[in-house]
Automatic annotation (TrEMBL):
Pfam families: BD-FAE (PF20434). This is Acetyl esterase/lipase. Keywords: Hydrolase. It comes from Anoxynatronum buryatiense. One of its GO terms (molecular function) is hydrolase activity. Transmembrane segments: none annotated. The keyword Membrane does not apply. Residues 20-215 form the BD-FAE-like domain. It comes from the Bacteria.
Amino acid sequence: MEITANHGVFHIPLENEGWLDAYLLAEGSTRQAVVICPGGGYQMISHREGKPVAEAFNQAGFHAFVLHYKVAPAPLGWQPLHQLSQAVAEARQQVALAENTAVSGVKVAVCGFSAGGHLAGSLGTLWHRNDLFPATTSFKLHRPDALVLCYPVISARECAHAASFQQLAGPDPELCQLFSLEEQVTDQTPPTFLWHTLADELVPAKNSLLFLEALMKAQVTAELHLYPRGEHGLSLATPAVEQPENQRWADPHVATWFALAVEWLAETL
């Protein structure tokens, strides 16, 4: 594996043409990291939900990694999930090296937006499945310690974002059902922070509500924030990531999600 650096960002190749951008803090900073999965409907990678979020987590005191997962051709099947699994393990190992500590001492959260939230939730709910992730070590490097799901695609049912599931599962109804994440939550799912806007018409807030309900049934620690206004895809909801052509405006109230998530991670990891 060849790791290259560009202006302080390390590029780490993954299987199937994926890669990680690593935003590592100075040695001795922290043993906590966040792997970020930008959205894009499994058709593209939203840069507004990548680098700016990594830099924000750096400023909050976390090592950060942005996953560039496979988005074409469809159907993608298990490829993005296996790339995220590899990314979490790689992030854990990179932080262990940077901090001169054991991998078991590194805590890794996965933060996903929209379809990237679905990808993060997929690993969070399925990481323990030996049929999907053969156990090679007693300590599972790919297990997320926490999830931060931002306006996530969750359900393949009545509130589904059909394009994401078509891109992921194609015409396979069994695979589509397996990727309906509210059906996959168990007590093995890590603690989860969710946020959504009630005005989101592309991926309705019911997705987050269904996931929260499943987490509660499984007695998994969770926190949900619902904001009354805001289009889908607000990212940090700050001026730096505004997208006026798609009505994605900065909103100081919605932007509070990030500080709330950081506070929650500090208590959870």
